[in-house]
Amino acid sequence: PIARQYYTQALSIDAKHTPSRYGLARVELSDGNVSKANELLTALLDDVPSYMPAVATFGQIAGSMGSTAAAVSRVEAAVAATPEAAEPRFLLAQYQLSAGETEAALASAEAGLEFHPDNARLLQMRGKARGQLGKEAARQDLLRAAELSPLDRLMQLDKARVLLNTGDPEAAREVVSDYLDARPSDTVALLFGADLDLNQGAVDRAANAVNAVLDQDPDNRAALILQGDILLQRGDLEGALDRFDVAGRNQMDRRLLLRQFSTRQKLGLADSRSVLDAWLQQNPDDVQIQTVLAQSLDASGERAAAISLYEQLSERQGTNARARAIVLNNLAWMYFTAGDARARQTAAEAQRLSPGTAAINDTFGWIAFSEDDLDTALPALRRANELDKDNSEIAWHLAAALSRNGEREQAIRLLGRALQTEENFSGRDEAEALYAELRGSP
Question: Which of 260, 187, 264, 196 is nearest to 228 (CA)?
Fold first, then answer.
């Protein structure tokens, strides 16, 4: 109330005083008056488009309301007003990445780096965009960003992720430990380290870290979720579900929702889908969760309902390319298994939207193979195998195509590797039969 009084008094002297206009908007936001705060910020940015505190706060509000386009528009105005400034370029790249516009985000980060080649946050954005596009230079960018900001949590955790993704979990853990030596009370980093430990099998160490956080903050949502993950690892499904439910009482998001749904399925609860239905009542346009619902319908044998939902989702406009590609890929596979002639065209569109996804190349290639079109099938299946060399089902599909193309030895090698695993992939019986046939033939 006192802050509101002084900001109002300041604006009575100068109605265009930028810091006071922004401060009053923050007061409205803290009081829960989101629409009023949004109105004040909009008017402020109409007058001063490059005032970055207001741009950032407006973007947070727009993002929470699902209006990323409005946030991007304001940041673009800030970029136009101050083209050499680093912060607008960083925010623009960040929003574009969150909207799935990876190429645009890369361009925004690179434009900023022309003026600020050693800006850690711009390097971080370029690294993330490059990583999503499969570019090797992503690692160099993220490591350099971390080097420039040794006490920046986000930079250090991104560095740890890079090391983890390139097969060096010990180095990743060392990065987290070094950061925690300087910032021992940083609970986000503590929980990141615990999650890393859990994924590397150090369950007890992860549990100790999580318990230490919960002793200080019993309602820490991230710690409750990680505690649920630990209980899952230990086989305590009911305990895990309880932790997930407690974590979701005051705030729910997709990742927690999917944990709840998956755990309910594993427990065999009859109302497993109820959590998805409740979410979709509040978020009816959430394509990702509707896709999960369609997958669940398919898995339970409700094929017609699943196809109908996929068809509705495939017609949505404005969905980012990656999400739309997944929907189309799943629909193509269902058409294929149902003998629907639309399967190939649908799979081709999915591949056009997401050419760097293994499963999508596999679906398109396998459908082409089933139509005896080896010229189309082989490049797609080879690409799928390059993208996911450990996927036994993809290896089997490629081996079948290679065998038909007369490349017997390579087919044998692929099948041998796939069948060494204990994975019960779709088509395993056929793969074993082909392997025996190829090894027995001259």
Answer: 260
Tokens of 150: 């040794």
Identify the H or E element spanning 174: helix 169-182
Q: State the Cα–Cα distance between residues 309 and 339, nearest whole angstrom.
A: 18
What is the end-to-end Cα distance of the chain in Å, rounded? 88
51, two tokens: 């005032």
Q: Which two tokens stand for residue 110?
A: 């690179």
Token representation of residue 389: 């060399």
pLDDT, tens digit (0-9, with 9 covering 90-100), for 378-410: 999 999 999 998 899 999 999 999 999 999 999
Distance of alpha carbon 276 from alpha carbon 264, whole angstroms: 11
Q: Quick one: how far is CA 27 from the chain centroid? A: 33
Whether 226 and 209 have beta carbons less than 8 Å apart is answered as: no
- How many whole angstroms separate alpha carbon 343 and alpha carbon 332? 4
pTM, entire model: 0.65
Give the span between the Cα atoms of 349 and 119, in whole angstroms. 38
What token pair was written down for 312?
Answer: 């509705």
What DSSP line would sit under 352-364, residue for residue? Answer: HH-TT-HHHHHHH
Contact between residue 313 and residue 294 where contact means Cβ atoms under 8 Å apart: yes
Alpha helices in 82-101 (DSSP H): 86-98
* pLDDT value of position 408: 92
CB distance 376 to 353 below 8 Å: no
Span 124-164, pLDDT tens digits: 999 988 888 878 788 889 889 988 998 889 889 988 887 88
User: How is residue 82 annotated by DSSP?
Assistant: S
The radius of gyration of the chain from alpha carbons, rounded to an integer in Å, stands at 26
Higher confidence at residue 356 or residue 70?
356
**Read out DSSP for 369-427?**
HHTT-HHHHHHHHHHHHHH-TT-HHHHHHHHHHHHHTT-HHHHHHHHHHHHHS----TT
Is 137 or 237 the better-scoring residue by pLDDT? 237
Segment holding 269, helix H or strand E: none
Q: Are 102 and 133 in contact (CB under 8 A)?
A: yes
- How far is residue 301's CA from residue 186's CA, in Å, rounded to a whole number? 47
Given a contact cutoff of 8 angstroms between Cβ atoms, the answer to whether 155 and 149 are in contact is yes
